[in-house]
Amino acid sequence: MSLASKVTLGLAIGVSSAIIGYVHYKQSDDRFKLHQGVLRDVEQQQRRKHENRYTLQQQIDITKQLKAAMEVDANEESKRNTANAVTPNA
């Protein structure tokens, strides 16, 4: 085997090994990035779920306050109507 063929064979093996190594590295990196994306999505879902629960609780509290205010207004209105009915108009 001549020196040129040995150098060519060595270069071909080296380049092929480098390509295979790069492909494996890239594949591992892509897999890691995909996994990080899944973890990020789960975290975002949990955050949205927490925010939605907080918003729902705020809405429940506001609804309770509104109902209480409406009851107070209704009681005051009924007291006024009762007072107007009892007092004779001259």
From TrEMBL:
It holds the Pfam family PET117. The chain crosses the membrane at residues 6-25. This is GH11547. InterPro entries: Pet117 (IPR031568). One of its GO terms (biological process) is mitochondrial respiratory chain complex IV assembly. It is found in: Mitochondrion. Its main location: mitochondrion. Keywords: Membrane, Mitochondrion, Transit peptide, Transmembrane, Transmembrane helix. Belongs to the PET117 family. The keyword Transmembrane applies. One of its GO terms (cellular component) is mitochondrion.
